[in-house]
Amino acid sequence: MSALIDYTLHLADNALILGQRNSEWCGHGPILEQDIAITNISLDLIGQSRSLYQYAAQLKADGSTEDSLAYLRTEREFKNCLLAEQSNGDWAQTMLRQFLFSCYQFYLYKYLQSNPDKTIAAIAEKSLKEVSYHLRWSSEWVIRLGDGTEESRNRMLTAIDELWRYTGELFIAAPYEIELNIDLASLKTEWDNKVKAVMEEATLPVPEKLFMQTGGKTGTHTEQLGYILSDLQYMQRAYPGCEW
Question: At a CB cut-off of 8 Å and minimum separation 6, what does 243 contact?
Fold first, then answer.
């Protein structure tokens, strides 16, 4: 049961933290259409996190709620991958982060549709339609920017330098993933193939033999998560138990 709780929180934290990051673009997107698009993606991710937090609270059966799991845990208790918490940077960095994560999430949710736990399988199946759009949308942006102007290409190259080091962790199993027999190796093959295809169309290089940062899945995060939680959790911590 402990492994299932940790894994459910891991999935929820990934969705919440990336959704919170993307929401920072609300009102600041390059054009209105894309501002609305990334805001909707934020809402999709936060909706996924709600379903997962609700299930985690049910499994814990200790009085936890979706709100307490989102607002009252510390950095070391969050289990999201490091990639999800990285700063937005510019539009190119945000698009590459979304693409790399959505590609991972797409194949993960496809895989989890067959999970023995029926609730996890149902959440994955429901979320897959949203993630399919996230992947298609972010892929188009990576291609547009990578194979665009000299300026947009240079910004994508900078984004690769900033973010690629956090992709290896996606496929390094945490103890709870090992206990639940989550087959990340097969997902990596699919992820590699899709990412290479899009990067090739975008005329962008795929880094090789790069040192990978890890730790997020087990609670060791970059300083970025602290900044996210200071915004996300402020109201609940300043006014405990407040309700709208």
Answer: none
Residue 127's nearest CA partner among 113, 147, 145, 144 is 113
- The two structure tokens encoding residue 236: 């609940």
Query: Residues near 95 by Cβ (< 8 Å), separated by ≥ 6?
Result: 138, 141, 142, 145, 159
- Tokens standing for residue 132: 């399919």
170 contacts 213 by C-beta, under 8 angstroms: no
pLDDT in tens, 133-157: 999 999 999 999 999 999 999 999 9
> Distances from the Cα of 209 to the Cαs of 164, 168, 212, 223, in angstroms?
11, 11, 9, 25
- Show the domains of the chain with their CATH numbers: 2-238 (1.20.1260.10)
